[in-house]
Amino acid sequence: MIVEKPVNSVTLLIQWNGPSVGQDPGATYAADVFSTVLRNPTSRWWKRLVDSGLAFGVDLNYYTLNHVGPISVFAQTTPDKLLALERAVYEEIRQFTDSAYFTDAQLAAARNQIAVGGAYEREESSGFAHTVGFWWAVADLDYYLGYRRNMQAVTRSALADYARRYLVGKPSVVGVLISPETRAALTLTPEALLPPGVVP
Length: 200
Fold this sequence. Notes:
The chain is an alpha+beta fold. 48% of the residues lie in helices and 16% in strands. The chain is built from nine helices and five strands; from the N terminus they run ββααββααααααβα. The chain has helices spanning 25-39, 44-51, 82-94, 104-121, 125-138, 141-145, 147-152, 156-166, 180-186, and strands spanning 2-4, 10-17, 57-62, 70-77, 173-178. Strand 3 (57-62) and strand 4 (70-77) form a beta hairpin. The chain is globular. The two termini are 13 Å apart.
């Protein structure tokens, strides 16, 4: 899918079906830690895609839902780097099944970051009410009350298992936000955006 919009930069979006909190709650804890680790500027993901100059910024996140939460990669770059960025994203994803892709220090930092974020969200009663309401609707209160404890138990092997089950080699949808003029200049086609190994 290619959406034409009058923008100067190019936005890349890739999505997968992620875990259901009702059917695979363990994977949802791993998903949150996984995304937090990748956002760390010390991560291999960040260094390969952002520090290298391929992207202005990149994020991989999971949105917890009961009926299959989406996993999304969102990145912005210049038109000339779009295809190289997409290929690099898939190359990095193929390495996610290696538990050595993450370090113990990065895992510990991610756990702490999530714990601190959870403490801040409970400081305001209005925000806390929305948080409790969301988790009550999506999962249940036991899931929310046990969230920090279960998140702290996530290991590097659990991160690799999450990637293996929901990301690496799994069907994905690719979208690009690009101006009509830039698309024409690049002669960009939907086939050019197919993931590696997919035959049109």
